[in-house]
Amino acid sequence: MAMAESYPGRSSLTSFIEKLGGKIRNEFNLEGTNGVVMFVKNNVEKWKSIPINLAVIGETGVGKSTFINTIRNLLDDDEGSALVGVIQTTKIPTPYNHPENENLKIWDLPGFGTADFPKSTYMKNIEAEKFGFFLILSSSRFKLDDVWLAKEIKKTNKTFFFVRTMVDRNIKDVNGRRTNKIPETKLLDDISKECRAVLRSGGFDDADIGLFLIDSHTPNRYEFGKLGRELINAAPEKKRDALTLSITTLTSEMIEEKKILLEKRIWYFAVSSGVVGGIPIPGLGVVFDAALLVEEAIRYRNQFGLNEKGLQKVAKWLKKTS
Ligand SMILES: Nc1nc2c(ncn2[C@@H]2O[C@H](COP(=O)(O)OP(=O)(O)O)[C@@H](O)[C@H]2O)c(=O)[nH]1
Ligand SMILES: [Mg+2]
Fold first, then answer.
1. Which of 25, 70, 145, 235 is geometrically suited to a Cys-Cys bond with 239, CB 3.0 to 4.6 A?
2. Mapped to the 3 state alphabet, what secondary structure does 164-182 carry?
């Protein structure tokens, strides 16, 4: 998987730490403790200044606003959330900042083929070049227009995924009044096949198409987490950390991604602390640790939603989904 390239695997960890130690020792020799603090900060805070623009496209009612709220870890009535169930009156692309990373913008884009956004000028009108990723949403089978759009995006070499929303409703519709329930896996498989048939008719091979079946109300179910992971994997290396640290935690896949990344980050602190702590000036190591480690420890807690606000949110989600 692409992940292995950017994160030190177990076998390459020793050389990663050795190299890091060399760089940090160098900083210390040149600039003292401040140099080391700056070096670590520059490296671990780099992600905050990297802009990421994610486009969410689909007709009114397919679940764009809901998806945008969920990926930002917001419930529909939270402050700053996108209005759900509201017919779009604004026909211009609307950005929503991620609450924890204002450089991550998720854009609500109007569907195409309307009078305001004719197909012929759609890519130009939405300023397609500014987006790194495109998610094409549908709450039923995809249409040939979706396939057309995907082809246009493919021409620009950008990443795109198909996202089939509201699968929970389909399952409920079929099984709601049956005594002998059809297994969920079979129903999901049917939805997937139905979607893929349309995409295949447009010339997309199953192998090169990312299709994810989700329910934005319960992101810990179905393929919401898998979608988050694939977004991270598809991101250019320099954007990967920013996405990992920003995307909502509510899936096991994201918890795993965050764990891997935070494990890498911790070496910056451990090695620096070792280098600075090894200098025979009493108290220097303690000061250094206090300056950097407290902040990072708070970040770890926040990343896993283990602060008060995060825990309240999890409680709210659980209450809502149980
Ligand atoms: N069950 C379920 N309902 C959803 C999902 N996504 C959106 N909805 C509901 O579908 C309706 C339209 O959603 P909205 O996000 O406003 O769609 P938009 O017009 O594309 O922005 C709202 O009532 C949402 O609560 C989903 O994944 N599962
Ligand atoms: Mg909307």
1. 235
2. ECCHHHHHHHHHCCCCCCC
